[in-house]
Amino acid sequence: MATSATSVLADLRADFPLLDQSVNGHPLVYLDSAATAQRPRVVLDAERAYLEQRNAAVHRGAHTLAAEATEEFEGAREAVSRFVGARPDEIAWQANATDALNTVALAIGVASRGLGGEAAKRFALQPGDELVVTEAEHHANLIPWQQLAAQTGAVLRWIPVDDDGLWTIEDARAVITEKTRVIAFAHVSNVTGMVAPLAELVELAASVGALTVLDACQSAPHRPLELGALGVDFAAFSAHKMLGPTGLGVLYGRRELLNALPPARTGGSMITTVTMEGAEFLPAPQRFEAGTQPVSQAIALGAAVGYLTDAGTQAILEHEHALAARLYDGLADIPGIRLIGPGAGRERAGLVAFDVAGVHAHDAGQFLDARGIAVRVGHHCAQPLHRRLGLTASVRASVYLYNSAEDVDTFLEAATGIRPYFGV
Q: Which ranges carry the Aminotransferase class V domain (predicted)?
C-alpha cells in the first residue's frame, strides 16, 4: 500500500464496497464520514471470520475456542493501543465514545460520594469546584459534566467562542482558575473543524492541578495521535468513525488514574472477589468492562487500525487537508453561503459546515441527496454552538481517505444550485 498523500484514493477507494453504488440515479458521493465512516473489506472480513470460526466468551472459558477468542480480543486491544500511543492496560472498551465520556464523569461522581477508597479521593468534587468545557462541545462532552455539576455542587463553566465558533488559549486562561478540577474539550470540533491548542491547554490544566478529558472522536481517525506523549489524562473515541463497527468506543486513561478511578458500572468480568457483603475490582482496564464484551467489534476495530496504519496516518492527514481546502475555497465562491469555522489559510480538519441563506439545512441536504451526495444536516449534537452562531442547523460536508477531488467538485457543482432551486 502506497503512503503518499496523492495516491491514497487510488490505492484504497476500491476497498470500500459501499461506495460502489448509485443513489437516486447518481453515483454515490459520500461526504458524511465525520458522522460515520465506511468499512473496508478487510474490516468486514475480520469480524465475519471471527463470528464464523472463533465466536466464544472471552476471559471465561478453558476450551480452545474461548482461548482463541480471548487471544484475538486482547490482540485487538494491543493494536488499538499502539495506534494511539498508549499501553494496552490504558485502553478500556466501552459502548461508544459517549459512554466512555460518561464513564469518567460517573466515576468522578462515585468518588465524590466517598466511595472507591483512599486512591479515589483525588477525584472527589466539593461544592464550588469548577468543571470547564468549551461552548463548542458535542453534547456527549457537555451533558455528562452538566449532570456531574448538578450532583456534586460543582460549577460548570465554559470557554466562549467567537462569531466564527472558535476559541483561543487566551480565552481558556480567562476561565480556568485554581478551582478548576476538570477541563473537557474536543481535540477537533465536529462543527467548525477547529484543532484545539492541545499542548497549551494541557500545560494550563497541569498548572492548576486539573484533569484533562479529551474528545478525540474527530482526531483519532484522521491524524497521527500519541495520547501518552500528549499528556492528557483521559480520552475517548469511536470505532465507527475510524472504519470500524458501531457499538464500540474506546476509553483511554493514564494507567495510574484508571486504577485509582472507581467504576460506576459493576457486575461480572470486572471483579476479583465477591461476597454477600462486598466486592473487590480488577485493575484497569477490566474494572471498566463489566459484563459480556463487544468481542467481534473490538476485533473489527483492530483490523481497522491496521488498515489505517498501512495507509499511513500522515498521508491521510495531508490528503484530507487538500480536500478540505478545496471544499472551503469552492464554497466560499458560492453566493449566499456562510462558512463556519477557521477562515482561509488557517488549519482545519477535513470538514466544512455552512449555512445557505434563505434555505433550511434539511432542505439543502435533501437537494444534495437527490443528486447522490450524502452530507450531514442539523445541529450536529452541538446546539449551544449553533445558538451562539445564530443558527438552528447547518450543512456539513466531511471527507476521509476514500474521497477524491472529483467527489468535492461534484458536491460543489451541486451546491451552486441550492439557492436557485429554492428560488432564493
A: 29-411
